Amino acid sequence: MSSSWLATLLDQEQIETTTKITSHVTPVVDMPDRTGADVAHELGSRLFLRYLTKSQLVEFLQGSVDRGHWVTPTPISSTEVVDWLALFAPGEPREHALLLDPSKIELVRGPSWVRLGSGIEYYLPAGFSKAAILDVGHVRVR
């Protein structure tokens, strides 16, 4: 059993004590809008991870409110994260992640199972402000 599988299973068990994880075929527009505070409670005040390519290391350090972002509460090794979350640009490794405080994000959709992957994801339709980024900025993932 991989650590990604175990971490996802533990996240699933925690999340499903308070809400349902939607199907991987549910369109994002059909997911209800929720407050970040509600999601933070659901996650037991755990953080979101926004995995980054090398070119994104400084791109989002001031926040990113002009586009949507997919995030996960699950720590996943850099060797599995692209496939586990079915990330775009699969040839680009994700060796860093931003840590985001869900309680400081205005609008969240999810949780949902990742389509063509195996993880749990949330969508931030209005992005995230600098205030949501944990003060360490990005961290290296191995």
Characterize the structure shown.
A 4-stranded antiparallel sheet has the order 1-6-7-4. The protein contains 3 helices and 9 strands. With 142 residues, the protein is α+β, with helices and mostly antiparallel strands. The mean pLDDT is 93. The radius of gyration is 14 Å and the shape is globular.
Main sheet properties:
4 strands, antiparallel
Number of strands: 9
- Which regions have little confidence, pLDDT < 50, spanning 5+ residues? none
Secondary structure category: alpha+beta
Global shape? globular
Strand content: 25-35%
What is the element layout, followed by pairings?
Elements: H1 3-15, E1 33-35, H2 36-42, E2 48-52, E3 63-64, E4 69-71, H3 81-84, E5 96-100, E6 107-113, E7 120-124, E8 128-129, E9 133-140
